[in-house]
Design brief:
CATH topology of chain B: Porin
Oligomer: heterodimer
CATH superfamily of chain B: Porin
Number of domains of chain A: 2
CATH class of the largest domain in chain A: Mainly Beta
Distance between the termini of chain B: 28 Å
Largest interface: A-B, 22 and 24 residues
Number of strands of chain B: 29
CATH architecture of chain B: Beta Barrel
Structural class of chain A: mainly beta
Largest sheet of chain B: 16 strands, antiparallel, barrel
Strand content of chain A: over 45%
Chain lengths: ~190, ~550
């Protein structure tokens, strides 16, 4: 009796959650930005098992910008025949979180688990022109815009959130968004 | 990066360097064209331009391209001069080849300010009373070189380099061609030699001297490199009759065979170059001799003053000192926080042999007018050593010994004569004209943007000594020349990389033995300096490349 009741409650809850899961969409000017839902008080999310790869090929970081959920392990690959290095001087300005991954040859990878949310500016101490970014989102709700700046973050539960938009070289901006099925937030970023 | 006082000192130095703009520079190059082509920073190849790091040395060894997978690194694709299939069709006749996608041109400019110490005009005391001598100001602003240079690779391992000074000291046309050559990299593969065993370079080149002069980070040239062997005839004292303007750092025309790598193991060079010890272009020959670029006569052809070709050889061996074998043999060492230059020890030696020629109008014993030719073989030999620690600290040392056979003109009675005296009737063998010396230096990259350096130069030359016995000093350098046997110089310097392509330079050239004691030559009655005459100089400068 009790077990079937619990099961019913779980199914109903699950259905109702999916029913109220909405999205946040809008436009960021200029385009090619990252938008994510900032930390939600009292909520934690399991770390994803997927390990995205940040490549170094042809003396550039590829992709140039990557967005991951906090707790994600990123693999850093060197596909060049020259030696590279990967380091970041801070995460969102916090210099205590600086890290240097060292040196490794072509075809090999090094991994790093990002446990702190924020903007990670990737650099190579051999090739100072190289730069890449990993945006570590504190929640699984994030998206990259298209070239025009349009974005849509899916599966966001209804509620009130702080949404952050980031673009390389621009000041980060955040906005409060109410999600009730659909939430809307447009950003105009400036230097 | 230091506290407030340190920043304020650096700021003051930068301001000081900026406030005074810049003399007496020599050439130095970095290649912005490669930056553009590969979309990479100067620091990929340079520590402090134009000084190469290990990767830059490997890039140069490979013929101005990445040692591996060059194609995948180029951001501006080259233009094909033939389909690759042609090479398969005619493997021994057609190499497709490429030209760079954009003209690989770089430009460079520098600008200097010099302060010269208080006894700068002392030398005028050697001139006869009432003679107007040259005046040396205490301070002087100078424009340096505005140079154009181009380098790259035509595919099939054929590299090229051309640099030319468009203007020097602000005077258009006052400069000249520095280096201009084609380099056929790794031609040893055609005769199945190991990789890198044999390259061929043809054109006007800087010899493979142990420490490059044209691409040195020092403003002032290495004294021993600019040491010519010029001795005046003085029948009263120890005579010398040498007029050899050859200096090892000058550009030379010829061919060079080379091999090995500059990033580890051996490297060698064997060059055959034109001899022109008189140092004057023999343009007048063109009126009589057809040349490659002339018709019946004229053209740009002949500059050698003898048939003989000077021979230059060098050999170096570099021991990379990393424990890990893989890292030791890689182009750059694998440091814990990123690739870096190797810690290494390099030993080398070099040798040059030539025959200086002097021709004099004289008379045979029967009085018939004749031309007498003095062929005076000479050699330069020496060794060099470098210890490098990672990116940041390097010690260099070089020693050179120069030796010129010395034929002295004599008249028909066998008495020594001066050139301006009685016509010579022949030559007798005199004491060789020799010099020796070298330098040691330490170069410390205190910060990625700041180089702190110090150098000691020493030259011991008996021709300098003899030349100083006549007013005017040795040719071309009456004010910084020594009147004693030995010239010393200690040069502390600091350089700031404002950007990867802009730097501010400060170099103080301290020359001990400042006193000048005047006396009278008892035989000629002319004034002479019996002590050294040296001036200290401070040179501040800016240099940029783009």
């Amino acid at each position: 009796m009790n077990r079937s009741f619990l099961l019913t409650v779980l199914v109903v809850t699950a259905l109702s959650i999916s029913a109220i899961a909405g999205s946040i969409e809008g436009k960021v000017s200029p385009g090619k930005s990252v938008v994510y839902v900032d930390t939600i008080q009292g909520k934690t999310f399991p770390a994803p098992s997927q390990q995205p790869v940040m490549d170094q090929k042809g003396l550039v970081f590829s992709p140039h910008v990557m967005v991951v959920q906090v707790g994600t392990t990123v693999e850093f690959l060197n596909s060049d025949t020259v030696q590279h290095n990967v380091f970041w001087p801070s995460i969102s300005g916090n210099k205590k979180l600086t890290h240097n991954l060292g040196t490794w040859p072509k075809g090999e990878k090094k991994s790093f688990k990002f446990d702190n949310p924020g903007v990670v500016s990737l650099l190579c101490n051999v090739h100072p022109e190289m730069a890449g970014y990993i945006i570590v989102s504190p929640t699984p709700y994030f998206a990259e815009t298209d070239a025009s700046g349009n974005y849509k973050i899916e599966n966001v539960p209804d509620g009130k959130y702080n949404v952050v938009a980031w673009h390389e070289g621009m000041k980060t901006q955040s906005k409060s968004v109410d999600v009730a099925g659909i939430g809307k937030a447009d950003f105009t970023l400036s230097k | 990066m230091g506290g407030r006082p340190f920043r304020s000192v650096c700021g003051s130095l930068l301001f000081f360097t900026f406030a005074f703009s810049i003399v007496s520079a020599h050439k130095s190059f970095a290649i912005p064209a490669f930056s553009r082509m590969y979309g990479t920073s100067c620091s990929t190849c340079h520590i402090d331009f134009p000084k190469l790091n290990d990767f830059g040395k490997a890039f140069k060894d490979a013929g101005f391209k990445f040692p591996k997978d060059d194609e995948s690194m180029i951001k501006i694709p080259p233009v094909m001069l033939g389909a690759p299939a042609n090479a398969e069709l005619w493997p021994k006749a057609i190499w497709p080849g490429t030209i760079p996608g954009i003209p690989p041109i770089g430009l460079r400019y520098n600008n200097y300010f010099q302060y010269t110490s208080s006894n700068r005009n002392q030398y005028n005391k050697l001139l006869p009373q009432g003679t107007v001598g040259p005046y040396i100001p205490a301070t002087d602003f100078e424009t340096g070189f505005f140079s154009i240079f181009s380098a790259g690779n035509f595919g099939s391992d054929i590299a090229f380099w051309v640099d030319d000074d468009i203007s020097v000291s602000g005077a258009n046309g006052n400069g000249g061609l520095g280096e201009a050559y084609l380099k056929f990299v790794n031609i040893g593969r055609l005769i199945k030699l190991p990789p890198h065993a044999l390259n061929l370079r043809i054109g006007q080149v800087e010899l493979e001297i142990p420490f490059t002069q044209s691409k040195s980070i020092w403003i002032s040239p290495y004294d021993i490199y600019s040491q010519a062997n010029i001795g005046a005839v003085n029948p009263v004292f120890n005579q010398q009759f040498v007029n050899n303007v050859f200096t090892v750092a000058s550009s030379s025309k010829g061919v060079e065979l080379s091999g090995g790598l500059h990033t580890g193991g051996y490297n060698y060079s064997i060059a055959f170059i034109d001899q022109n010890t008189s140092g004057t272009p023999q343009a007048t020959n063109n009126n009589y001799v057809p040349t490659a670029t002339g018709s019946n006569f004229g053209g740009v052809g002949i500059a050698s003053d003898a048939n003989f070709k000077d021979i230059y050889t060098s050999f170096n061996y570099r021991f990379n000192l990393e424990h890990d074998k893989e890292s030791r043999n890689a182009i750059q060492a694998a440091g814990p926080t990123g690739p870096r230059d190797h810690t290494y020890l390099n030993f080398g030696s070099y040798w040059l042999y030539g025959r200086s020629v002097q021709r004099l109008s004289g008379a045979l014993l029967d009085g018939t007018a004749a031309v007498f030719t003095a062929r005076e073989p000479f050699y330069r030999v020496g060794g060099n050593m470098t210890f490098n620690y990672h990116c940041c600290l390097q010690f260099n040392a070089l020693y050179m010994y120069g030796h010129d056979y010395n034929l002295l003109p004599v008249d028909s009675t066998g008495t020594l004569v001066s050139v301006s005296g009685a016509p010579p009737a022949g030559f007798v063998r005199g004491s060789p004209a020799t010099f020796s010396g070298g330098f040691v230096d330490a170069e410390w990259l205190a910060y990625p943007w700041m180089y702190v350096m110090v150098r000691y130069d020493g030259v011991n030359s008996n021709s300098d000594y003899h030349n100083a016995l006549v007013p005017g000093g040795f040719a071309g350098s009456p004010f910084n020349g020594a009147a004693s046997v030995t010239r010393n110089r200690i040069t502390p310097a600091v350089q700031f990389l404002i950007h990867a392509n802009i730097k501010a330079i400060a170099e103080y050239q301290f020359r001990p033995s400042q006193s000048v004691t005047l006396a009278t030559n008892p035989f000629t009655g002319l004034p002479v300096a019996t002590n050294s005459f040296h001036t200290n100089t401070l040179v501040l400068g800016f240099e940029f490349v783009y």
